[in-house]
Design goal:
The protein is mostly helical. The protein is built from eleven helices and no strands. The longest helix has 29 residues, at 91-119. The radius of gyration is 20 Å and the shape is globular.
């Protein structure tokens, strides 16, 4: 007698199912927002609510109850633990690691912008830096700038929670980190449909995949999603104030290159992975018990 098909036993199909389901749910919420609710298509409010509701519906309803990922049928509490969403201790250590990684990323991004300015033959001094980095874009307090990056936090729940845990059931940790990072990068290819330049989107695929390696290492070393979620949120919040000068003045080729090297790619990923290993070696995060994942 043949065994019944179980999606969680096929990680690649499982990841594809998660991504396709998210896309379908997102389209449904876009239709609801644009017609019954009559939110202006493409507006900040419309993009924010459709993206947020699509992620919440997918990750906290459809994945555990319909797709039954990452390990098959289990209680809701066990699901949250298996994807490391309910693991918030030791809070101070996790927060400190996340904020220090954000600082490393911000310094790499700022350094990349200053290198770009220098390559143009422009002065790099205190006066020019004040004009280059536009933190005024984060105010006034009612600005949507603080809310827009919130849905991106749930990308970590999707790829470092569900997808990474799914791959850990069949593959080694390095392989699971790599495969989940590739899925994370591939999801950004959907930006081709938004009208972005092909070269820029391909660059985004590369730097998202590279940066996804850091996120995977971070989640495994801390056994929690929250540091990665916080870094993802803050990284998207400050990317425009820090790198806006380059984004608005550089060619598409330069934007892709600096993104891969300095903004989300090789340099910050390398430094943040090294720092994560050093931090957890000096200050072991030992209070979180590993989720029960077959084969992990």
């Amino acid at each position: 007698m043949s065994k019944q098909f179980q999606l969680h036993q096929h990680p690649w199909l499982g990841m594809l199912a998660v991504m396709l389901t998210w896309f379908v749910v997102l389209l449904i919420f876009i239709i609801v927002a644009n017609y019954p609710l009559k939110l202006p298509p493409g507006s900040q409010k419309s993009l924010f609510f459709t993206n947020l509701l699509a992620h919440i519906t997918l990750l906290f309803v459809l994945v555990p109850f319909v797709l039954r990922l990452p390990v098959g049928k289990q209680s809701y509490q066990a699901y949250l633990a298996s994807i490391r969403f309910s693991r918030v201790r030791p809070f101070f250590q996790l927060l400190l690691l996340a904020l220090s990684c954000c600082l490393i990323q911000a310094l790499c991004q700022a350094g990349g912008v200053l290198i770009y300015r220098a390559s143009q033959g422009l002065p790099v001094n205190w006066i020019s830096m004040r004009a280059t980095f536009d933190f005024a874009s984060l105010v006034p307090s009612d600005s949507w700038s603080w809310l827009n990056p919130l849905p991106s936090m749930f990308e970590e729940v999707m790829f470092r929670g569900v997808v990474l845990s799914l791959f850990l059931t069949r593959y080694s940790k390095p392989q699971a980190v790599l495969f989940s990072a590739l899925g994370f990068g591939a999801m950004h290819l959907l930006n081709l449909a938004s009208g972005r330049e092909t070269l820029w989107v391909l660059g985004q695929f590369v730097w998202s995949t590279i940066f996804g390696l850091f996120y995977g290492v971070l989640v495994l070393k801390t056994n929690s999603l929250w540091p990665a979620m916080l870094i993802h949120y803050l990284g998207n919040l400050f990317i425009e104030p820090i790198t806006g000068y380059l984004q608005h003045t550089a060619s598409i080729e330069a934007q892709a290159l600096y993104g891969i090297l300095f903004f989300f790619g090789i340099v910050p990923t390398t430094l943040m992975i090294l720092w994560t290993f050093l931090f957890t070696k000096i200050w072991p995060i030992s209070s979180n018990k590993s989720p029960i994942i077959p084969g992990a």
